[in-house]
Design goal:
Strand content of chain B: under 5%
Distance between the termini of chain B: 63 Å
Helix content of chain B: over 70%
Largest sheet of chain A: 5 strands, parallel
Shape of chain B: elongated
Shape of chain A: elongated
Strand order of the largest sheet of chain A: 3-2-1-4-5
CATH class of the largest domain in chain A: Alpha Beta
CATH superfamily of the largest domain in chain A: HUPs
CATH topology of the largest domain in chain A: Rossmann fold
CATH class of chain B: Mainly Alpha
Number of domains of chain A: 2
Order of helices and strands of chain B: HHHHHH
Number of helices of chain A: 8
Largest interface: A-B, 38 and 40 residues
Oligomer: heterodimer
Number of strands of chain B: 0
Structural class of chain A: alpha/beta
CATH superfamily of chain B: Cytochrome c oxidase, subunit III, four-helix bundle
Helix content of chain A: 40-55%
Radius of gyration of chain A: 25 Å
Radius of gyration of chain B: 22 Å
Number of domains of chain B: 1
Number of helices of chain B: 6
Distance between the termini of chain A: 39 Å
Number of strands of chain A: 5
Order of helices and strands of chain A: HHEHEHHEHEHHE
CATH topology of chain B: Four Helix Bundle (Hemerythrin (Met), subunit A)
CATH architecture of the largest domain in chain A: 3-Layer(aba) Sandwich
């Protein structure tokens, strides 16, 4: 997306283009009449909208590292999983990551996955209830395996859920658990690659059947 | 690795927490978007009022301004040219400091300030001689409302430019650090953009 006022030079160029567009509208009005002026104005507005929405280079991706929150010797592991947190492979991965640390703090985040329509309508209560159910089941299974963890419901957008959790939890390790390729919407949308590009924290991808 | 490096830094950090920077939109860009958004809504409200009054004009949409009112199109046109030229000198000032040309920066800012002041004084003189008052009719109200709102923005721009000019003469700003000129420059071009729209809709169309 373009911002016509992102710098003085861009704003100056935008001003010149606007002057040309307004001059064309006024000329059309004087020479061809009101409807011609309206047509020129609509074309100019459409061109401007297209330039703002589609123009410009993609926004610069800033890779961010979370600030550390834990004490010395503590290892903080963030697990982001949809419905796959119960798998043995994931539990083994968590144990492996926690090994060697004096104390391991584990946070499981279950994004409140929602349909776009419900999201636009701010109808997220059912999604949050389902996420809470999944989270409770996951934490209970981890507890059964001797892994103490706490949980949170995250944003419906998994990348945003990770970012939110990193800001408050400040993880040393991030584990993303997904279904295998072909069954995972997250993999289809390139979640793991996007997370690696965006967060400067070791990321482990665990595929759970 | 970086996480651990950040961790080490964190332990020696005193005072408020290290600010986070979202990887989606930088704070500067977000701030500018919010500012432009609020300004567009403000001017949009006044333009809505203007077009409403024009559409419900009993003499018809094309009869504008209403009978008995005459707008000084030529004087406002000259004023528009002055304001547009002031954007050119503003751009010149910025280009000059980016090249390390301090005299160019100072001259550009002084010229911009002078032309902006000329624009505002001319507008005040126009108000004094235009022959109708704000409370006369709905047309008079929207005319003073729109042009006055813009005039208020010009006044704020002049204050920003005054600060930038004083700082320029005190030796501030370098080719690498000239944020104090860049931001008034963006604001000044925005004020010009709004004037072009105001002038075209109120005086010409």
């Amino acid at each position: 997306m373009q911002n016509p006022f992102r710098s003085e030079a861009v704003a100056f160029r935008f001003l010149l283009v606007l002057v040309a567009a307004v001059a064309a509208i006024v000329l059309a009005d004087q020479l061809l009449g009101r409807w011609a002026a309206l047509a020129v104005a609509i074309v100019a507005a459409a061109a401007f909208t297209w330039w703002v929405v589609a123009g410009g280079p993609p926004p610069e991706q800033v890779r961010t590292a979370p600030a550390r929150r834990g004490g010395p010797g503590e290892r903080r592991i963030l697990v982001v999983a949809n419905e796959t947190v119960g798998g043995e492979k994931l539990r083994a991965c968590i144990r492996e990551k926690a090994e060697g640390a004096e104390r391991a703090e584990i946070l499981v985040v279950a994004p409140a996955l929602n349909s776009p329509l419900r999201q636009w309508a701010s109808d997220e209560d059912p999604a949050r209830r389902q996420a809470q159910q999944r989270l409770d089941d996951s934490l209970a299974r981890l507890r059964d395996d001797g892994i103490e963890a706490r949980g949170e419901i995250g944003d419906s957008e998994p990348l945003q859920a990770i970012e939110d959790a990193l800001r408050t939890f400040g993880a040393d390790e991030l584990i993303i658990s997904t279904h295998p390729e072909g069954r995972s919407h997250w993999l289809e949308r390139g979640l793991v690659e996007a997370a690696r590009a965006r967060f400067d924290v070791p990321i482990t991808h665990v595929v759970v059947e | 690795m970086s996480a651990h490096a950040a961790a080490g830094h964190e332990h020696h950090h005193h005072g408020p927490p290290v600010p986070h920077k979202s990887s989606r939109v930088s704070a500067e860009v977000l701030g500018m978007f919010l500012f432009i958004g609020s300004e567009v809504m403000l001017f949009g409200a006044f333009f809505t009022m203007y077009f409403f009054v024009r559409v419900v004009n009993p003499e018809g949409f094309a009869t504008w301004p209403p009978e008995g009112f005459h707008l000084p199109v030529f004087v406002a046109g000259v004023n528009t040219a002055i304001l547009l030229t002031s954007s050119l000198t503003m751009h010149w000032a910025l280009t000059a400091i980016k090249r390390g040309n301090r005299a160019g920066l100072q001259a550009g800012l002084v010229l911009t300030l002078a032309m902006g002041t000329t624009f505002l004084v001319t507008q005040i003189l126009e108000y004094a001689r235009i022959g109708f008052a704000m409370g006369d009719t709905a047309f008079a109200s929207v005319f003073y409302g729109l042009t006055g709102l813009h005039g208020a923005h010009v006044f704020v721009g002049l204050l920003l430019l005054t600060v930038a000019t004083v700082r320029a003469f005190r030796g501030h700003y370098t080719p690498e650090h000239h944020h104090g000129v860049e931001l008034p420059g963006i604001y000044w071009h925005f004020v010009d953009v709004m004037w072009i729209v105001v002038y075209a809709t109120v005086y010409l169309l």
